[in-house]
């Protein structure tokens, strides 16, 4: 019997031509540069590969302190350009040398109770999770022009085996671009840029994991 509270099933949507090799423990990577080029076409995160902080013009101000004196200059929203932002990006050219493979993770929150009999409980996927999976398959097919399938990995040591193979792996976490305090906290923990996304993308119910 599975304790569903500890469930963590890695999943991946892949083109049918790669299904056999994936099931034989091959992981297919794409370049970060390639993903960035896709994102620039209006698909997904236009800020892929960088951290973006935004100012709320009606609430933000910047104070400039003049060295050697007590004078300060305060810039208000009237001094900001439209949609002002600051960016933290990877060094030039490094995207070509970084390979990315993304997985999803089904956890306890993705399931709901279906039935209960003789102290045994059966669970099923939540409808919103199922819809997310269908969308992932559909988007991948539209992107590649090929039929795709969902692969569910059952090995409990899946992620540790990836790391033991010499790859870096981590779960994507989200930050508020209008409040970079969480970003700063995550960065203090040495979390790489590629594992951080604006909280706009946190609406997807399936937790994402990215290996590089």
Question: What key attributes describe this structure?
Answer:
single chain, 212 residues, 14 strands, 33% strand
Question: How does this model look, in words?
Answer:
The chain has 212 residues and is α+β, with helices and mostly antiparallel strands. The protein is built from five helices and 14 strands. The protein has helices at residues 19-23, 32-39, 127-144, 158-164, 181-188, and strands spanning 8-15, 30-31, 50-54, 62-65, 72-75, 85-89, 99-107, 111-117, 120-125, 148-152, 169-171, 173-175, 196-198, 207-211. The strands form five sheets. Strands 1, 2, 7, 10, 11 and 14 form a six-stranded antiparallel beta sheet that branches. A two-stranded antiparallel sheet has the order 3-6. The two termini are 34 Å apart.
Short précis:
This protein has 212 residues and is an alpha+beta fold. It is 22% helix and 33% strand.
Q: Which word captures the global form? A: globular
- Structural class designation: alpha+beta
The arrangement of helices and strands along the chain is EHEHEEEEEEEHEHEEHEE
Overall average pLDDT: 75
Rg, alpha carbons: 21 Å
Number of strands: 14
Beta percentage is 25-35%
Query: How many DSSP helices?
Result: 5
Secondary structure: helix percent: 10-25%
Largest sheet: 6 strands, antiparallel
Low-confidence blocks of residues:
none
* N-C termini distance: 34 Å
